[in-house]
Amino acid sequence: MQLSPSQALEAVLFAAGEPMKKRRLAGLFEVTLDLLEAAARELAQDLEHRGIVLIETEDELELRTAPEAAAIVKKLRESELSRDLGKAGLEALSIILYKGSATRGEIDWVRGVNSGAAIRSLLLRGLIERTEDADDKRRARYTTSVDALAHLGVTRKEELPAFTEVSQALSERGTPDTDHDA
Questions:
Q1: Which of 19, 32, 121, 132 is in Cβ range 3.0-4.6 Å of 60 for a Cys bridge?
Q2: Residue of 23, 5, 98, 30 whose CA lies nearest to 61
Q3: Is there a domain that residue 178 lies in?
Q4: Is 57 found in the same domain as 93?
């Protein structure tokens, strides 16, 4: 089955789970910006009266939940926040803490699995913050928040168990050859 341009756009935006630059999408699909915007209009029309909407700014596109779904989404988030962080969340948070900051690709590399859900949970809880990566503006870098330190009962990350040793081991482990966070 061949996907239409709007279906392919929907799949990529869903998989990304974050805003994507129109220029990057046009390059990915090897089409002009005009063709990309036509696919975006078609996708927006296809999503009318659905649970998700296409958000479009001058230079970005993103899939989001429809405003009409706000109450049920709020209920879901509240139930997520009432649960423990879990092993995946603690691992991702630890990597970010001990490295000082990390991209999703770096976290995935150390954990050996996709960390998207764990990162999302940490962001929702306010334990990590997302910033632009200085080395690659297309990629996000995650740092811990003050709330994370308070949650862990420390005032500085250097108070964490074996901070120096673990930080050094993580820096020696290296990073992936290619980082697909862009």
A1: 19
A2: 23
A3: no
A4: no
